[in-house]
Amino acid sequence: MMKLGTAQIDITPQPGVELSGFAARVQPSTGVLDKLFAKALYIETEQTKLLWINCDLIGFDRGIVLEFRRWAHEKFGLSMHQVMLSATHTHAGPATIHLRECGEYDPVYVEFLQKSIRRAAEIAEAQSEVVGLTCVEGYLPLAVDRRPTATPHTDPRIAAIGFRRHDGSFIAVLMNYAVHPVALGSTNRNISADIFGEAAKRLSSELLGRPLVLMTNGACGNLNPPAENASFENVKSWGRQIADVVQPLLLAGKINFQSTLQLLNRKLEIPLETLDTNGINDFADQALRNAAPLAEWGDKYRRVVTYWRATRLEQIKKNETTQNEAELFGLLLGDVIFLGVNAEVFSEFTEWLRQKSRRKIYLVGYANGDMGYLATRAAYAEGGYEVDVAHLFYGGFRPRAGGLELLAAAAKDLVGEWGEIIDESP
Q1: Same structural domain for residues 102 and 195?
Q2: How many domains does the chain have?
Q3: Which residue among 53, 99, 256, 277 is buried most deeply as judged by most CB within 10 Å?
Q4: Which residues fall within 8 angstroms of residue 148, CB to CB, at 6 or more apart?
């Protein structure tokens, strides 16, 4: 028997906060297009419990995750392996991760956020009812590969898990689709959940019970909507398309009241391209001669490179080591696997897992933190923003080529503990 409690808390900041995600944006924000929410699921079975918080934010600084998990352990007795925080990755929300020159990290807002997600957890834990699951998969070729590559890849699958009462009404829906919520673009200065906000609103309004809808992101490191700097009407239209694909499938799907929940958690270090003093200076000098980012971001980019050089040199001087710790958070919900990863993962990652799995698998990106991009070896060979420039904004050394493939091998081992037939690396 599965029980579910839900909660939704408004986490919309006041206009005037800086928005995260675009170096080209003029700051600060000037208005609100639609509200941002923190949404909580508290799932309990005879075997285990899960607290899942999903927010309309660009991501979570790892410190936010660790502090919330510490609180959840003290409050509910949950281990870190029973608590997941994920983000939609909207680029029109406040700065809750550290991205240099892309919106100033706001500790005042983060304090408000911590209080809000704690309140959501308390509400969800305090009220629960028996639920069954309806698991469906839809298809929508909305996202596009944003890289000019000879081997483009997209993931058109939409996962939808309906949590339903005996009368068929819905308490909550968990959705997953891989696309960067950047449709409003860098010219936008209004707070918004972008595409996913409208998708959640639309689906909730179309289902009996007006359920809470958690819209999670997939392996979207290379995937964008059809256009950026789009009108809000276009953004809402794309969100409605996502909802409208799965709505009839959910209504027609069977309800399974015998569904179970299993959890697994793994950590591994992603190797970095660490550099010595000469290497840091050479890389920074070369970066400052890179015409494309200079033309797009100008002095902001110069400041990013200068700060990166100074902090990396200081790290060498203090003999400090840097680690990029990846966390895999596995959920077997009914017959569907969700795999949370604290990174911006390229879409082929999920495909590698699906090729050897008897179950449907979906990647939940920006889960329990955000270490930055993990790209394919092919992307490293081709170059581009995600592999050549992004780590400068994140403020660390670049992950070595092969990091995504290493993570995929670890993910296959983890999923293999559920009896999956996965025996090859990508």
Answers
A1: yes
A2: 2
A3: 53
A4: none
> 181 and 196 in contact (C-beta within 8 Å)?
yes
Domain extent, residue 29, equals 2-260
Provide the phi-psi class of 259: left if phi over 0, else alpha when psi is between -120 and 50, else beta: beta
Report which of 214, 185, 210 is spatially closest to residue 197, judged by C-alpha positions. 214
What is this structure's pTM? 0.95
Same domain? For 90 and 205 the reply is yes
Q: Does residue 174 lie in a domain region?
A: yes
Tell me, yes or no, whether 345 lies in a domain: no
- Asked if residue 151 and residue 56 are part of one domain, the reply reads yes
pLDDT tens track of the chain, all 426 residues? Answer: 999 999 999 999 999 999 999 999 999 999 999 999 999 999 999 999 999 999 999 999 999 999 999 999 999 999 999 999 999 999 999 999 999 999 999 999 999 999 999 999 999 999 999 999 999 999 999 999 999 787 789 999 999 999 999 999 999 999 999 999 999 999 999 999 999 999 999 999 999 999 999 999 999 999 999 999 999 999 999 999 999 999 999 999 999 999 999 999 999 999 999 999 999 999 999 999 999 999 999 999 999 999 999 999 999 888 877 778 999 999 999 999 999 999 999 999 999 999 878 889 999 999 999 999 999 999 999 999 999 999 999 999 999 999 999 999 999 999 988 875 545 544
